[in-house]
Amino acid sequence: MDPNKPDNPDTYPALGRLLTWVDRPGSLKKIIYGLYVLCATLFAADFFYHKHTYLRVEDIPGFYALYGFFMCAALVVCAKGMRIFLKRPEDYYAPKDVESEPFPEDQLDRVDYDA
Q1: What would the pLDDT profile of 82-113 be if each residue is shown by its tens digit?
Q2: For labelling, which of 10, 51, 86, 94 has a CA lying 20 to 30 Å from the CA of 102?
C-alpha cells in the first residue's frame, strides 16, 4: 500500500463502507451522546416494570445502574491505590530481557532510501 496515495473508501468491503461515518469529524460526539441517551433511557425504564426480586435492595429503581457505576469507580480508585506498591521501575526486567540485548548489525536488513 502506497502511503502517498489517497485512501479510496469505494475499495472497502461492504461493512467498511457502512462504517465510514465513524471516521468523520463530529461522529465521536454523536456516539457519546447516543450512549448517554441509551443509558438514561434504560435507567428510566427501570421505573416502569415490575421486578421479581430476592432481596429488598433490588426493588430500588435504578439499583443495578447505580451499583455498576459505583463499583466501576471503586475499581478505578483501588487500581490507583494498588499502583503504589505494584509499580516497578522502567528497567525492572532489563537485565534478563531479550529486547534489551543489541541486535547483531550483520543480520539487520537496512535499506538506504537516499540512494
Answers
A1: 998 898 887 777 777 766 667 777 877 778 78
A2: 86
